[in-house]
Amino acid sequence: MPVYEYQCTACNNTFELRQKFSDEPATECPACGGTVRKLISSTAFSLKGGGWYTEGYGSSKSSDAPTCPSGGSCAGCPSAAA
Ligand SMILES: [Zn+2]
């Protein structure tokens, strides 16, 4: 389920809502009741959305260099095991 991020235009409070695509967007700040606007939250969505994104990303980079911070030489790296 995607996570939407909102920011209050009155108090600048930001909050996240986990909503279905069919749910109505939030319009009120839970802190002050002011008007909120939806933020672009593709980062939150990709990090917390789970499954499909991770699988798609993994398959698309399979032929690229490993992204391990130690250059693929750590024990957990697929390239080190191969
Ligand atoms: Zn507010």
From TrEMBL:
Residues 58-82 are annotated as: Disordered. Pfam families: Zn_ribbon_8 (PF09723). Transmembrane segments: none annotated. It comes from the Bacteria. InterPro entries: Regulatory_FmdB_Zinc_ribbon (IPR013429). Coiled coil: none annotated. Residues 1-41 form the Putative regulatory protein FmdB zinc ribbon domain. Residues 66-82 have a biased composition (Low complexity). NCBIfam families: CxxC_CxxC_SSSS (TIGR02605). This is Zinc ribbon domain-containing protein. It comes from Geomobilimonas luticola.
